[in-house]
Each structure stands twice: as C-alpha cells, then as structure tokens.
C-alpha cells in the first residue's frame, strides 16, 4: 500500500479507460477534481483544470458517494435506498466515462 500525502493508506489506484467496473472497486474523485455547488447556476458542478461541468441531480448524488470508501455496489445500493429505481448499468456507465476522462480514480477493494 502507498500512503497519500494526507497520510491515508491506499491500494493501487488506477484509471482504466474502457474497462468495466467491478462492484468492489472504490471510486474517488481524482486529486485535480472537486465537487462543488455553483450559487450562480444553483446546481452542483464538477471543477477541474480544463473546465466546469454542470451536473444533474443524479450525477451529483453519485459523485458525492465517490469518496474512496464506498464500493460501486454500495453506491448503487445507497442510491437505491434514496430513490425508487436506480439502474445499476447506468451508474456504472457514468462512472466508466468519468474514469476514462481521468476525473475519477478507482481503488481496489
């Protein structure tokens, strides 16, 4: 395990463009990306060096749970408890796109 600059232990982190997500993967925002709220737009936003991405409610809900502690399966389960229906494949597809853009990193479970 390597230690991050904040002193937390972490196993190998990877960005696997195009690869499927495992239910045991633990997604987290990349170090250069931040989830925030735009008071001007009254919407959650994803900030990264190249641009600002305005998120819809479900995208923000997914990313709020991408803390490196929750697994993909736990994120789907938590969202299922909050909302009536959460398509597992749509959550995985959303996270796969963000991994491909290097905005989300996966830590082995």
UniProtKB/TrEMBL annotation:
Span list, region Disordered: 1-26
Superkingdom, natural source: Bacteria
Record's keyword annotation contains Electron transport: no
Pathway annotation from the record: Cofactor biosynthesis; pyrroloquinoline quinone biosynthesis
Keywords, sorted A to Z: PQQ biosynthesis
Signal peptide: none
Family annotation (Pfam families): PqqD
Compositional bias (Low complexity): 1-18
Subunit structure: Monomer. Interacts with PqqE.
Name this polypeptide is given: Pyrroloquinoline quinone biosynthesis peptide chaperone PqqD
Gene: pqqD
């Amino acid at each position: 395990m390597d230690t991050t600059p904040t002193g937390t232990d972490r196993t190998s982190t990877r960005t696997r463009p195009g690869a499927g997500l495992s239910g045991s993967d633990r997604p987290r925002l990349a170090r250069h990306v931040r989830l925030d709220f735009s008071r001007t737009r009254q919407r959650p936003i994803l900030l990264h060096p190249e641009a600002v991405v305005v998120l819809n409610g479900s995208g923000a809900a997914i990313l709020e749970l991408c803390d490196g502690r929750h697994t993909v399966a736990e994120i789907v389960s938590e969202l299922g408890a909050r909302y009536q229906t959460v398509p597992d494949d749509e959550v995985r597809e959303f996270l796969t796109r963000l991994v491909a853009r290097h905005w989300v990193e996966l830590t082995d479970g």
